[in-house]
Design brief:
single chain, 221 residues, mainly alpha
Length: 221
């Protein structure tokens, strides 16, 4: 795929003199990476997504190995996260045009933090209550992601509309990179554990970072 793109996909951005767009790409990249707003939207998107990826990496081990449940039951429980994300996306589609991107990002960050806090509380106080202790908070964080992710991506692209492709590429790459790291890291902490607490702590940690990025880079707007 990379070879096909390099050799067969023509550059779509041309300068007035007809030269290729590589210099313009580097210029736009520099302007985006030095933008506080762009960093805020992108980091909120990446660390907010990590709430889901950390859960995705750890939940199978927690449910099947630690709780002794079947893979069929795991699959059924996972539907709660999909439902939460769908509801969040639906709310986002209805409210974003009226309330604006920034307010939806605010709600997504706040609700995601509440979901991360609830998994800490439920796992800490009810370690033997079964999958509901992790999947109920997951519904909340997935709902939050349904509002946070599309609006933070839209916000990142809006910083420099003329560099929308570059902005989308950076945001998507960082989102997947942080998510992959979260999914890989959580299982190393869960492997020697007897409860889901390590996963809950990692999810809460990403929620704290996401909240800090919001207040440090976006809240002033």
């Amino acid at each position: 795929m990379l070879a096909a793109i390099v050799f067969a996909l023509p550059e779509t951005i041309k300068t007035r003199g007809g030269a290729g767009g590589i210099r313009r790409f580097i210029q736009e990249l520099r302007l985006l990476l030095t933008s506080k707003r762009f960093a805020g939207y992108t980091l909120c998107c990446a660390t907010g997504s990590a709430l889901f990826f950390a859960f995705l990496g750890g939940a199978p081990h927690v449910v099947i190995t630690l709780m002794g449940r079947s893979s069929v039951e795991l699959g059924i429980w996972f539907a709660t996260g999909a439902a939460g994300y769908m509801v969040g996306n639906y709310m986002s589609a209805r409210w974003s045009p009226r309330l604006g991107v920034d307010l939806m990002v605010t709600w997504g960050v706040a609700i995601g933090a509440a979901g991360a806090a609830s998994i800490l509380i439920l796992v800490g106080f009810f370690p033997d209550a079964g999958p509901i202790t992790i999947f109920l908070p997951q519904f909340i964080t997935a709902f939050a992601n349904g509002m946070l992710l599309p609006n933070s991506i839209a916000g990142a692209i809006s910083v420099r509309p003329q560099a929308a492709g570059t902005a989308a590429g950076i945001t998507g790459s960082l989102q997947m990179a942080v998510g992959a790291g979260a999914a890989q890291a959580v299982i190393h902490f869960l492997e020697p554990a007897h409860t889901a607490m390590p996963m809950a702590i990692i999810i809460a940690g990403f929620a704290v970072v996401c909240t800090a990025c919001y207040f440090g880079l976006l809240r002033s707007r």
